[in-house]
Write a structure and sequence with these properties.
The protein is an alpha+beta fold and about 500 residues long. The chain contains 16 helices and 13 strands. The protein folds into 2 domains: about 220 residues, no CATH class; about 210 residues, no CATH class. The strands form 6 sheets. It has a 3-stranded antiparallel sheet with strand order 3-2-7, with no helix packed on it. Strands 1-4 form a two-stranded antiparallel sheet. It has a two-stranded antiparallel ribbon with strand order 5-6. Helix 12 packs across helix 16. The longest helix is centred in the first third of the chain and has 15 residues. It is globular and about 65 Å long.
Length: about 500
């Protein structure tokens, strides 16, 4: 995949890359001010100024129940609040198969994973792996691909293709289907226990997932296919992540580890939808450049619904699935050319952009501050970059020039053998994952008691999630494992305050 990276970067002019490393929205005075305010703190005796408002002015204080991650940006005007509510209704709506009397809601499938966005993003939070072996996998999906040929490698390098699809099953396994079609298969996940002894003798039992696809509906899938289980990620703060200036992301990239610190993050350069390349910010491997593309491909892959950026009415159905391609679709000429017309997609995108990060809790608590110091001292912030000031040129005024605290660099990192899925996606290889943001992670269990951690939900709690880290994060993981129990508990308490 390094060859693909070189090919991709060759398509981007040196001038463009140089420009991306310089913020074009700031005066020199502003740039100096931002550099100072985003510098990692060295004072852990008190909370930093504005630290509680981790989404800036967009931060929501309404965190008292299971809807804590479903609140709108606090700085939206009245008209935008109404748009948010309409988008929320569309995000929660159950779609049905075509033809149907509910013409504005039909077109589901023919192959699909869920009937509504909310079915996977549970209350806009994270999904989970099956609770028991063979259990329900609604909020988890399985990506598929095969080794690309020469033509496909070129398309991947230019951002026109995320991976080489399975010739029959496509890029994603759909475990549901409309009447008259078999689903592509049933996902089964079993677990193998792996005990880990920490430095003070405490034993933590991790669970390693074993993925299987049962009852394949369209013939053998094959042993060589690359498979990757993924839970739905939490959605809070997506619009603010999109508003981070690209220069601030590229400035943290160090693909060759030139500073020899063992951390070599790099961006997943993906197609921008207009024939060029841009930074991938969304998805577990950073394969989508913006929320509109992310939403359109989720509609297509997860529900089989067409939209302007992904206009196929049959979603991920392949040429080998002719019965699927012969099924009716739900596009209505009176409503638009697609099953999710552009105006409806825009409302879902607006909703997704404005799900607010929650206000921090107990930022000045002594144990939280000690945990924050331990988090920093262990080297976690080498990837989980604490804070940014968003671009003055952000698309929406609510996201402009906000001091935010997402704890991510949005870059790809080698996370070691333990978390490797062996599946390439864009320029990301089978060991690389985009650093997920941590804001809102402390609300995960409040929003959904079954919420899982890491890309496939294998970790049942934050301690397990940390202990799975390897590769570039091995030193930080080992530092955590070697801490005294009270220090580990403080670090977890800090994470739960986010």
């Amino acid at each position: 995949m390094k060859t693909l990276l070189a090919a991709a970067l060759a398509l981007v002019s040196a001038t463009a890359l140089a420009a991306d490393h310089m913020r074009d929205d700031l005066t020199p005075k502003d740039a100096a001010r931002i550099e100072a305010v985003t510098r990692p703190t060295a004072d852990f005796t008190k909370a930093e100024r504005f630290e509680a408002k981790q989404g800036g002015a967009a931060t929501t204080p309404k965190i008292g129940d299971a809807n804590a991650l479903s609140q709108p940006s606090a700085n939206l005007g009245f008209d935008d609040q109404q748009r948010f509510l309409v988008g929320n209704g569309l995000f929660r709506k159950d779609w049905v198969s075509a033809p149907s009397s509910t013409q504005a809601s039909d077109g589901l499938g023919p192959l699909f994973n869920a009937r509504a966005c909310q079915a996977c993003h549970i209350k806009d939070g994270r999904g989970h792996a099956p609770v028991a072996p063979g259990g329900d996998a609604t909020s988890l999906l399985v990506r598929l691909s095969v080794e690309p040929d020469a033509a496909q490698r070129e398309l991947i390098a230019t951002g026109a293709l995320p991976a080489a699809p399975h010739p029959v099953y496509g890029l994603q396994l759909q475990d549901n289907a409309v009447a008259g079609l078999p689903p592509e298969g049933k996902v089964r996940i079993d677990y193998v226990d792996e005990p880990v002894t920490l430095g003070d003798g405490e034993v933590v039992t991790l669970r390693r997932p074993v993925l299987a696809i049962e009852n394949p509906g369209y013939g053998p899938i094959g042993d060589s296919v690359m498979r990757s289980a993924r839970i739905a990620p939490a959605m809070a703060g997506m619009g603010l992540l999109e508003a981070i200036h690209p220069a601030d992301i590229l400035a943290r990239a160090d693909p060759d580890d030139s500073d020899d610190d063992g951390i070599s993050g790099r961006p997943n350069m993906v197609g921008d939808g207009a024939g060029g390349l841009t930074i991938g910010r969304f998805g577990w491997k950073g394969i989508q450049p913006d929320i509109r593309q992310q939403s359109a491909h989720a509609f297509s892959g997860d529900m089989g619904l067409s939209s302007p950026p992904a206009p196929s009415h049959w979603g991920d159905c392949t040429a080998a699935q002719q019965d699927c391609l012969s099924m009716p679709h739900g596009a209505q000429p009176s409503l638009g050319a697609e099953e999710v017309p552009g105006d409806l997609l825009d409302l879902v995108v607006f909703y997704s952009e404005n799900l607010a990060p929650p206000v921090r809790r107990d930022v000045g608590d002594a144990a939280v501050l000690r945990g924050k110091q331990a988090f920093y001292a262990a080297g976690c912030i080498a990837c989980h970059t604490p804070k940014y000031v968003t671009s003055r040129k952000a698309a929406h005024p609510a996201h402009r020039f906000q001091l935010i605290w997402p704890y991510t660099d949005l870059l790809l990192h080698d996370m070691g053998d333990g978390l490797a899925d062996g599946r390439t996606e864009g320029l990301a290889d089978g060991r690389e994952w985009r650093t997920p943001p941590l804001w809102g992670i402390g609300m995960a269990e409040q929003v959904s008691a079954e919420a899982g951690y890491l890309h496939d939900g294998r970790a049942r709690n934050l301690t397990e999630a940390i202990l799975w880290h390897g590769g570039e994060a091995q030193a930080a993981r080992d530092a955590f494992a070697d801490m005294a129990r009270t220090e580990r508990e403080d670090l977890i308490r800090f994470l739960k305050s986010l």
